[in-house]
User: Fold this.
Amino acid sequence: MRRKPVPPAPDSLDRLWNAHAAVPLIPGSEDDCCGRVAERLDVTPDEGRDWLVFCQSLGLAREVSRGFERVRDDWQQEELKDAFVERVFGAREVLDALGDEPRSTGDVFEAFEPTVPRWERHRDPDGWESRWQTRVERLLDWAVLFGVAERNDDGYVAVEPNESE
Assistant:
């Protein structure tokens, strides 16, 4: 399953590890876990929920019958990159829009736009485009953080698989 929440990408993976550490080892309710993450990262409860679901997408947390629990601590960057590409909605499509030549966020969004679900467009006809442009920007920034894309003055480019290892 691919999940949509994508929090703003931080400057380093330390913030992701802080979110991961906030998820309890002994399962806690969704509200409790979101509150813990929000408190640890000093964000709103809704933003804490986005971080929790993002951690779940990356395999750093899992939902069990009693709530959410933290998953192991020994993840490698390659595993995170693979989980990001495979389990975060839009990551694969954003990376597919990149190539050897730098592309602006607007160019990537234009290539990505056909994948925005129709119901999202109908749910918010006046705001969906802005919301999804922000999502594409966040996906690009996470791609850079995970080493599958690079950003330069002209835009974003894909990183060849052997370069990111």
Q: What stands out?
A: Helices lie at 14-22, 30-41, 45-57, 77-87, 91-97, 105-112, 118-123, 128-145.
